[in-house]
Amino acid sequence: MTAIILFDGECNFCDASVQFIIKRDPHGYFRFAALQSDVGEDLKKKHLIADKLDSVIVIDNNTVYDSSDAALAICRHLNGIWKGFYLLKVIPKSFRNSVYKIIAKNRYKWFGKKDNCMIPTPDIRDRFL
């Protein structure tokens, strides 16, 4: 069983996050697709995800998670101490999402933006849709 992470393929922070996840997900639970890709667009339509949603998206067992819920769903499946971050789920969602939105709103300003989506290396290419 695998889950799909839809990420902003133009965002440096998002790209670094994908690389971070891959290193801590040795069993390959997560697959990846850029929101801007044809696969990303198809998955957004299939799961009725709004185009204007400014968030990482996790689709796990036909359940869609966004914002802080998506980040915590990712942590839940990572190795090491990162799994423990799932415990932040006890913090009220409104507060978690407020913090998430600050980061999402400023990600290009703080981390920069790419002109193109990343091209996966051969050893991880099969994890990208």
From TrEMBL:
InterPro entries xref list: DCC1-like, DCC_oxidoreductase
One Pfam entry name: DCC1-like
Gene Ontology terms for molecular function: protein-disulfide reductase activity
Protein name in UniProt: Thiol-disulfide oxidoreductase DCC family protein
Species of origin: Psychrobacillus soli
